[in-house]
Amino acid sequence: MIAPVEIKVNVASPVTDSLVALDLLDSPPLWRDMWFAEARARDDVGALPLLAGRLTIRLRSGDRDDVTVGVRPCDTDRLVGRWRAPFEETHFSYRLERDWCGERREVAAAAISRRPPGSVATALRDGADPAHILDAAQRQFVVTCTPRGIPIDHLGTLGPVTCQTWPEVDLDGCSVQVERWSVADVDLLELAVRLQPHPGETAAQFEVRAMSAHRAIRATVTRRALSIADFRESKTHRVMTALRATS
What we know:
- There is one protein chain.
- By secondary structure, the protein is of the alpha+beta class.
- It has helices at about 15-20, 50, 120-125, 130-135, 135-145, 205-225, 235-245, and strands at about 5-10, 30-40, 55-60, 65-70, 85-90, 90-100, 105-115, 155-170, 175-185, 185-195.
- The chain has a 9-stranded mixed beta barrel with strand order 1-6-7-4-3-2-8-9-10, surrounded by 4 helices.
- A hairpin with a 2-residue loop joins strand 6 (about 90-100) and strand 7.
- The longest helix is centred in the last third of the chain and has 21 residues, at about 205-225.
Protein backbone atom coordinates (compact mmCIF):
# COMPACT_ATOMS: atom_id res chain seq x y z
CA MET A 1 0.00 0.00 0.00
CA ILE A 2 1.22 3.50 -0.86
CA ALA A 3 0.05 5.80 1.92
CA PRO A 4 -1.36 9.25 1.04
CA VAL A 5 0.72 12.30 1.94
CA GLU A 6 -0.64 15.37 3.74
CA ILE A 7 1.62 18.37 3.19
CA LYS A 8 1.31 21.06 5.86
CA VAL A 9 2.65 24.60 5.86
CA ASN A 10 2.55 26.71 9.02
CA VAL A 11 2.35 30.45 8.39
CA ALA A 12 4.45 32.68 10.65
CA SER A 13 3.01 36.00 9.47
CA PRO A 14 0.26 37.63 11.57
CA VAL A 15 -2.96 35.70 11.02
CA THR A 16 -5.09 38.66 9.89
CA ASP A 17 -2.43 39.69 7.35
CA SER A 18 -2.25 36.09 6.17
CA LEU A 19 -6.01 35.84 5.65
CA VAL A 20 -5.89 39.04 3.58
CA ALA A 21 -3.03 37.65 1.47
CA LEU A 22 -4.97 34.41 0.95
CA ASP A 23 -8.17 36.30 0.02
CA LEU A 24 -10.01 34.72 2.96
CA LEU A 25 -10.78 37.65 5.24
CA ASP A 26 -14.31 37.98 3.85
CA SER A 27 -14.82 34.27 3.22
CA PRO A 28 -16.88 32.60 5.98
CA PRO A 29 -15.14 29.60 7.57
CA LEU A 30 -16.56 26.53 9.26
CA TRP A 31 -16.51 27.24 13.01
CA ARG A 32 -16.07 24.59 15.66
CA ASP A 33 -14.99 24.33 19.28
CA MET A 34 -12.23 21.81 19.85
CA TRP A 35 -10.94 19.98 22.93
CA PHE A 36 -8.14 17.54 23.60
CA ALA A 37 -8.36 14.70 26.09
CA GLU A 38 -5.48 14.27 28.52
CA ALA A 39 -4.69 12.69 31.85
CA ARG A 40 -5.94 14.92 34.63
CA ALA A 41 -3.35 17.36 35.98
CA ARG A 42 -1.29 15.95 38.85
CA ASP A 43 1.81 17.02 40.74
CA ASP A 44 3.95 16.81 37.58
CA VAL A 45 2.88 20.25 36.36
CA GLY A 46 2.81 20.61 32.59
CA ALA A 47 2.92 16.87 31.87
CA LEU A 48 0.98 15.56 28.87
CA PRO A 49 1.17 11.74 29.17
CA LEU A 50 -1.06 10.93 26.21
CA LEU A 51 0.75 13.31 23.91
CA ALA A 52 4.13 12.07 25.17
CA GLY A 53 2.94 8.55 24.34
CA ARG A 54 2.13 9.69 20.76
CA LEU A 55 -1.63 9.37 21.36
CA THR A 56 -4.00 12.26 20.67
CA ILE A 57 -7.74 12.33 21.34
CA ARG A 58 -9.35 15.35 19.68
CA LEU A 59 -13.02 16.29 20.03
CA ARG A 60 -14.69 18.89 17.79
CA SER A 61 -18.20 20.29 17.95
CA GLY A 62 -20.17 22.76 15.85
CA ASP A 63 -21.85 22.41 12.46
CA ARG A 64 -20.00 19.10 12.15
CA ASP A 65 -18.93 17.01 15.13
CA ASP A 66 -16.24 14.39 15.19
CA VAL A 67 -13.95 12.53 17.56
CA THR A 68 -10.48 11.57 16.37
CA VAL A 69 -8.06 9.14 17.99
CA GLY A 70 -4.66 9.60 16.39
CA VAL A 71 -1.20 8.11 16.77
CA ARG A 72 1.69 10.20 15.45
CA PRO A 73 4.39 9.25 14.79
CA CYS A 74 2.95 5.78 14.30
CA ASP A 75 4.87 2.52 14.53
CA THR A 76 3.28 0.66 11.62
CA ASP A 77 4.50 -2.66 13.02
CA ARG A 78 1.87 -2.26 15.76
CA LEU A 79 -0.96 -2.01 13.24
CA VAL A 80 -2.72 -5.35 12.93
CA GLY A 81 -5.84 -6.70 11.25
CA ARG A 82 -8.04 -4.11 9.59
CA TRP A 83 -5.88 -1.29 10.97
CA ARG A 84 -3.17 -2.00 8.41
CA ALA A 85 -5.02 -0.16 5.62
CA PRO A 86 -7.42 2.81 5.39
CA PHE A 87 -11.16 2.19 5.18
CA GLU A 88 -14.41 4.16 5.15
CA GLU A 89 -17.79 3.37 6.76
CA THR A 90 -21.01 5.36 7.12
CA HIS A 91 -20.06 7.28 10.26
CA PHE A 92 -16.49 6.13 10.71
CA SER A 93 -13.24 6.41 8.79
CA TYR A 94 -9.71 5.22 9.32
CA ARG A 95 -6.76 7.03 7.79
CA LEU A 96 -3.17 5.98 7.44
CA GLU A 97 -1.03 8.67 5.87
CA ARG A 98 2.31 10.43 5.94
CA ASP A 99 2.49 13.93 7.40
CA TRP A 100 5.03 16.28 5.87
CA CYS A 101 5.61 19.59 7.63
CA GLY A 102 8.88 21.39 6.96
CA GLU A 103 11.61 18.82 7.49
CA ARG A 104 9.37 16.53 9.58
CA ARG A 105 8.23 13.29 7.97
CA GLU A 106 5.91 11.18 10.13
CA VAL A 107 3.44 8.36 9.60
CA ALA A 108 0.08 9.10 11.23
CA ALA A 109 -2.86 6.77 11.90
CA ALA A 110 -6.27 8.20 12.82
CA ALA A 111 -9.61 6.61 13.70
CA ILE A 112 -12.38 9.17 13.18
CA SER A 113 -16.02 8.87 14.21
CA ARG A 114 -18.54 11.41 12.95
CA ARG A 115 -21.22 12.56 15.41
CA PRO A 116 -24.48 14.58 15.25
CA PRO A 117 -23.90 18.35 15.29
CA GLY A 118 -23.56 19.71 18.83
CA SER A 119 -23.53 16.28 20.48
CA VAL A 120 -19.88 16.35 21.54
CA ALA A 121 -20.16 19.75 23.22
CA THR A 122 -23.31 18.58 25.04
CA ALA A 123 -21.60 15.45 26.33
CA LEU A 124 -18.63 17.42 27.62
CA ARG A 125 -20.90 20.02 29.24
CA ASP A 126 -22.66 17.18 31.05
CA GLY A 127 -19.33 16.11 32.53
CA ALA A 128 -18.64 13.01 30.44
CA ASP A 129 -15.14 11.56 30.69
CA PRO A 130 -13.82 12.01 27.13
CA ALA A 131 -12.67 8.39 27.15
CA HIS A 132 -16.35 7.39 27.42
CA ILE A 133 -17.15 9.35 24.26
CA LEU A 134 -15.00 7.06 22.13
CA ASP A 135 -16.97 4.51 20.13
CA ALA A 136 -16.29 0.77 20.12
CA ALA A 137 -14.05 0.87 17.04
CA GLN A 138 -11.90 3.63 18.50
CA ARG A 139 -11.50 1.72 21.75
CA GLN A 140 -10.45 -1.32 19.75
CA PHE A 141 -7.91 0.81 17.88
CA VAL A 142 -6.46 2.16 21.14
CA VAL A 143 -6.20 -1.25 22.77
CA THR A 144 -4.80 -2.98 19.68
CA CYS A 145 -2.48 -0.45 18.10
CA THR A 146 -1.22 2.12 20.60
CA PRO A 147 1.82 1.86 22.91
CA ARG A 148 1.07 0.22 26.25
CA GLY A 149 1.16 2.10 29.53
CA ILE A 150 -0.63 5.25 28.34
CA PRO A 151 -3.36 6.33 30.82
CA ILE A 152 -6.62 6.33 28.82
CA ASP A 153 -9.11 6.19 31.69
CA HIS A 154 -10.28 9.03 33.94
CA LEU A 155 -9.31 11.68 31.44
CA GLY A 156 -9.98 15.40 31.49
CA THR A 157 -10.25 17.91 28.66
CA LEU A 158 -8.07 20.80 27.59
CA GLY A 159 -9.88 23.57 25.76
CA PRO A 160 -11.93 24.71 24.08
CA VAL A 161 -9.84 25.94 21.19
CA THR A 162 -11.59 27.98 18.51
CA CYS A 163 -11.14 26.17 15.21
CA GLN A 164 -11.90 27.90 11.89
CA THR A 165 -11.61 25.88 8.68
CA TRP A 166 -11.76 26.86 5.03
CA PRO A 167 -12.02 23.37 3.50
CA GLU A 168 -11.39 23.96 -0.22
CA VAL A 169 -9.43 27.08 -1.08
CA ASP A 170 -8.19 27.49 -4.65
CA LEU A 171 -4.62 28.69 -4.27
CA ASP A 172 -3.04 29.18 -7.67
CA GLY A 173 -4.88 26.17 -9.06
CA CYS A 174 -4.27 23.93 -6.06
CA SER A 175 -7.06 22.92 -3.65
CA VAL A 176 -5.85 23.73 -0.13
CA GLN A 177 -7.44 23.44 3.30
CA VAL A 178 -6.73 26.41 5.57
CA GLU A 179 -7.19 26.00 9.31
CA ARG A 180 -6.84 28.45 12.18
CA TRP A 181 -6.54 27.44 15.84
CA SER A 182 -6.93 30.16 18.47
CA VAL A 183 -6.72 29.99 22.25
CA ALA A 184 -5.22 32.34 24.83
CA ASP A 185 -2.03 33.83 23.31
CA VAL A 186 -1.74 31.14 20.62
CA ASP A 187 -3.06 31.90 17.14
CA LEU A 188 -1.94 29.45 14.44
CA LEU A 189 -2.67 29.26 10.74
CA GLU A 190 -1.89 26.17 8.69
CA LEU A 191 -2.34 25.23 5.04
CA ALA A 192 -2.69 21.58 4.09
CA VAL A 193 -2.76 19.65 0.82
CA ARG A 194 -3.64 15.95 0.77
CA LEU A 195 -2.27 13.85 -2.07
CA GLN A 196 -3.55 10.40 -3.05
CA PRO A 197 -1.50 8.00 -5.18
CA HIS A 198 -2.80 7.63 -8.73
CA PRO A 199 -3.82 4.21 -10.08
CA GLY A 200 -0.73 2.47 -11.41
CA GLU A 201 1.63 5.01 -9.85
CA THR A 202 4.73 3.51 -8.25
CA ALA A 203 5.95 4.51 -4.79
CA ALA A 204 8.92 6.29 -6.37
CA GLN A 205 6.71 8.24 -8.79
CA PHE A 206 4.36 9.25 -5.99
CA GLU A 207 7.30 10.41 -3.87
CA VAL A 208 8.52 12.64 -6.70
CA ARG A 209 5.04 14.12 -7.19
CA ALA A 210 4.66 14.75 -3.44
CA MET A 211 8.04 16.48 -3.27
CA SER A 212 7.06 18.68 -6.21
CA ALA A 213 3.74 19.58 -4.52
CA HIS A 214 5.61 20.34 -1.28
CA ARG A 215 7.88 22.80 -3.07
CA ALA A 216 4.95 24.32 -4.97
CA ILE A 217 2.76 25.06 -1.94
CA ARG A 218 5.68 26.62 -0.07
CA ALA A 219 6.51 28.74 -3.12
CA THR A 220 2.88 29.85 -3.39
CA VAL A 221 2.86 30.99 0.23
CA THR A 222 6.14 32.86 -0.26
CA ARG A 223 4.86 34.58 -3.45
CA ARG A 224 2.08 36.06 -1.37
CA ALA A 225 4.69 37.72 0.87
CA LEU A 226 3.97 35.37 3.77
CA SER A 227 6.68 33.82 5.91
CA ILE A 228 6.75 30.11 6.71
CA ALA A 229 7.26 28.84 10.26
CA ASP A 230 9.02 25.49 10.44
CA PHE A 231 8.23 24.69 14.06
CA ARG A 232 9.96 21.72 15.64
CA GLU A 233 6.69 20.84 17.36
CA SER A 234 3.33 20.21 15.70
CA LYS A 235 0.52 22.72 16.15
CA THR A 236 -1.23 20.14 18.35
CA HIS A 237 1.78 20.03 20.67
CA ARG A 238 2.00 23.82 20.84
CA VAL A 239 -1.70 24.27 21.60
CA MET A 240 -1.89 21.47 24.18
CA THR A 241 1.21 22.78 25.94
CA ALA A 242 -0.35 26.24 26.15
CA LEU A 243 -3.62 24.80 27.43
CA ARG A 244 -1.92 22.70 30.10
CA ALA A 245 0.03 25.74 31.30
CA THR A 246 -3.23 27.56 32.01
CA SER A 247 -5.25 24.61 33.37
